[in-house]
Amino acid sequence: MVAAAFFWPGTEAPIGGLQPSLWRAFDGGVANRHRVEPESYRLVVDAKGRQGFVRGEAHITLADGTDGHTVVSVDGRGQIGGMIARVGQRLVGAVGKTMMDRFFDCLSKKASAVSS
Fold it and tell me: Is residue 12 part of a domain?
């Protein structure tokens, strides 16, 4: 059986103890710009590879909420091209939402561990 992961940085890493047998690397990075501690920052992604390109940015805002909680707002935009766009166009939104959900679940667990 061949498992493939072409689309996202980090997909060459083992997932659940299994590693994809086929993957392609991207050249690029993530920059943290316009940082206003502790209120907001902007993440800028720019990556390209044989399979296409990914460009995007997200503006993350932190605000005081009720009962000492922090409200996190994310406004993101992205653009993809090449084989990624042809093959994965319909998956991008769902994958982005899943990755954000995982990020906030992990952040919540780590914050709970630190505060207890």
Answer: no
